[in-house]
Structure formats: structure tokens, C-alpha cells
Specification:
Radius of gyration: 22 Å
Strand order of the largest sheet: 1-5-2-4-3
CATH architecture of the largest domain: 2-Layer Sandwich
Helix content: 40-55%
CATH superfamily of the largest domain: Metalloenzyme, LuxS/M16 peptidase-like
CATH topology of the largest domain: Cytochrome Bc1 Complex, Chain A, domain 1
Order of helices and strands: EEHHEEHHHHEEEHEEHHHH
Shape: globular
Low-confidence stretches: none
Number of strands: 9
């Protein structure tokens, strides 16, 4: 995928003109715990004046960090927002470094000492104390990034993307028993998972569990009869899902989830109508 790409999406509800931009920094190789979170803090600090002006106009900003990725999420309506002015380099001075190091140390103290999941992102108190600016700068050699914009527009500007054909190969699905489906193809597994998550959103009584063993993906239904009922009423499920998508937050969450899952903008409404449903029948 290009480092900078924009997807034009026609919303279900009237969002007006809304752009969701994600700037993603992926890091390869071994990253010391806590350093990405430190880098996120320093980048926000380096761009403080830009973010202050941006948020003063009622725009939304958030930053998320996990063990190998930093994501900046911006939601705005103004066409004048220019994220190319954001600075993502390593020209940090020692004073800024020490201030953010202390801030993260205090943040880490809010959690218990033995919290491995927190240590991976924030670092332990011991590793935070040992943060080193030179180590941080050397990490940049392992970084790649991309910008992704989702532009939600109620105007028919002819830029909306057409879905590729998405189906599940018939020989990809094996019914292990009356409640368990087995798939060997990861892509087919993702397609089926997308359908099941829509089922779940529209019917809280529909439950399933997944087992992602190596090259072997299993989905077990708590009650096959509920799954069968959802299949037989898939048109009503789609109508219910469309109603749910009039909630702006859910619509945005679903768009981003599907993009992360498939790597392209998936219009699930078209997908629902074109999918080869017979492959899911026993």
C-alpha cells in the first residue's frame, strides 16, 4: 500500500463532510519496552502548537501505542486541516526528553508493579528510569509509516471505491461437528468472521468462540440453531445493521475495523448482497 492514501466513503447517516485520518508508524524488529510510548509523548510535545490550534476548532485527536505501533487518529471537518505540517523527527532536546520521561514515570505509578501488559507499552518503573535518548533515536532505523484518510462524504463525487469480489471457497469450509466450522484459509476465515460479527452486533443471543491454531481456524457456535436462524434471516439482519450504522461512532468503528482486517475499504452492504451464502449451509 502507498504511504499516503485516501478512501472516499459514502456514509449511511448524514455525517456531512468528515475526514478521519490515521498516521501509522510501524516498527520492525526488537523494540525495548516503553520506548514507543515515550516517542509518542515526545512527538505530541513537539507538535503542541499545531494540536492546540487543531483542537481549539472542535476537532478530535487521539494517540494510541502498542508494542510495535504508534497511531495518531484525527477526526475533523475543516478542509483546511493540513497534517503534512506535523513534525515526526527526532530533534528532541534533553529538557523535553527528561520532562516526558518523568511524566511517563508518574503515569506508570498508577498501575501495580506486576502488570506485564502495561510494561510492554509503558515500561516498568525500572526501564523508564533507564530511558536513553540515544537508544530512542537509533530506533528510527526500524520505522516505516503510512497515512490513511477515510473521507466520509454525502456528496456523490464519483470517488467511492468499488469492492473487490469477496467470497469463501466452498472447499475451504469443513464442519467438524454440529457446532464447529473449520477453515484452513486465513482470508476465508476473516470473511466469515466479518459476517459473524455483524450477526453478533444485531443479535446479542448469538455467541461463538474462535480458535486460531496455526494454519487451522475453528469457529464454534454456542447454539447452531441461532446461527441457522441468522442465516435464514440475513436480509433482516442487514436492515438491522444498517439502522445501527446510523450511529456515527459505530459507523466509524466498523469502517476502521474492516479496513484493518482486509487492508482496503470494504462496503459491507455491497458485500452482504454479493456474498455466496450457500457455502455456509451444512
Amino acid at each position: 500500500m502507498k504511504k499516503d492514501c485516501t478512501f472516499f466513503i459514502k456514509p449511511v447517516s448524514d455525517l456531512g463532510e468528515v475526514t478521519i485520518e490515521r498516521i501509522i508508524f510501524n516498527f520492525n524488529g526488537s523494540i525495548r519496552e516503553g520506548y514507543l510510548h515515550l516517542l509518542e509523548h515526545l512527538w505530541v510535545r513537539a507538535n503542541k502548537s499545531w494540536f492546540d490550534d487543531y483542537e481549539s476548532k472542535m476537532n478530535i485527536f487521539n494517540a494510541l501505542t502498542n508494542k510495535n505501533r504508534i497511531t495518531f487518529i484525527l477526526i475533523y471537518t475543516a478542509s483546511t486541516v493540513n497534517t503534512n505540517k506535523l513534525i515526526f523527527d527526532l530533534n528532541f532536546n534533553e529538557q523535553d526528553f527528561l520532562i516526558e520521561k518523568k511524566t511517563i514515570y508518574e503515569e506508570r505509578k498508577l498501575y501495580s508493579d506486576s502488570t506485564p501488559d502495561v510494561d510492554i507499552v509503558l515500561g516498568s518503573l525500572r526501564t523508564i528510569e533507564a530511558f536513553d535518548l540515544i537508544v530512542l533515536k537509533n530506533m528510527m532505523q526500524q520505522m516505516n509509516y503510512k497515512k490513511i484518510r477515510f473521507h466520509f462524504s454525502s456528496k456523490n463525487n464519483g470517488k467511492y471505491m468499488k469492492n473487490p469480489t469477496i467470497n469463501i471457497k466452498k472447499n475451504s469450509i469443513i464442519w467438524k461437528d454440529s457446532n464447529t466450522i473449520q477453515l484452513k484459509d486465513f482470508y476465508d476465515y476473516k470473511v466469515l468472521l466479518t459476517i459473524l460479527k455483524v450477526f453478533k452486533l444485531t443479535n446479542e443471543n448469538f455467541c461463538f468462540n474462535v480458535n486460531e491454531a496455526k494454519e487451522n481456524y475453528e469457529i464454534t457456535f454456542d447454539d447452531y440453531e441461532v446461527f441457522d436462524f441468522m442465516l435464514k434471516n440475513k436480509d433482516n439482519v442487514l436492515k438491522r445493521y444498517q439502522l445501527l450504522l446510523t450511529n456515527t461512532q459505530l459507523f466509524i468503528e466498523q469502517t476502521i475495523y474492516l479496513f484493518d482486517l482486509f487492508g482496503f475499504n470494504l462496503d459491507i452492504l455491497d458485500f452482504w448482497r454479493e456474498f455466496n451464502w450457500e457455502v455456509l449451509e451444512k
